């Protein structure tokens, strides 16, 4: 009774993200960060842990906070939610779209498959 699995059509996901003021991804480690990429690509401001992985993923130092430091997230949220300019600085849609849209990824995947096919044993 505490779990509900739902499905949202891909073309409606952006509408859900637009209901939020900010997406906080509090994990200190992540294999990729699809929720962050999805949210950021819609223009939603995002906050993530200050690590090399999330710095690479978002390419926006303003979107990083040390999630291990007691009170750091709460303090940062107070600051950005009180200041529209600081909140807007957490947007990184341009970078995320340029790096992770299907248009950007498709040629990279094709190149990878070509390299793999060229090294396959005969």
Compact summary:
With 122 residues, the chain is mainly alpha-helical. It has seven helices and three strands, in the order H-E-H-E-H-E-H-H-H-H.
Could you describe the 3D structure shown?
- This protein has 122 residues and is mainly α.
- Helix content is 51%, strand content 7%.
- Strands 1-2-3 form a three-stranded parallel β-sheet.
- Helix 2 links the parallel strand 1 and strand 2.
- The chain starts with 12 loop residues before the first helix and ends with a helix.
- The mean pLDDT is 95.
Spell out the key features of this protein.
122 residues; mainly alpha; 7 helices
Query: How many alpha or pi helices?
Result: 7
Compressed to H and E, one letter per element, the order equals HEHEHEHHHH
Percent of residues in beta strands: 5-15%
Report, as a whole number of angstroms, the end-to-end distance.
54 Å
What's the helical proportion of residues?
40-55%
Find the count of extended strands (DSSP E, 2+ residues): 3
Mean pLDDT: 95
Main beta sheet strand tally, sense and closure = 3 strands, parallel
Structural class: mainly alpha
**Radius of gyration from CA coordinates:** 17 Å
Biggest sheet strand order reads: 1-2-3
Quaternary organisation: single chain
Sum up the overall morphology in one term.
Answer: globular
Low-confidence stretches: none
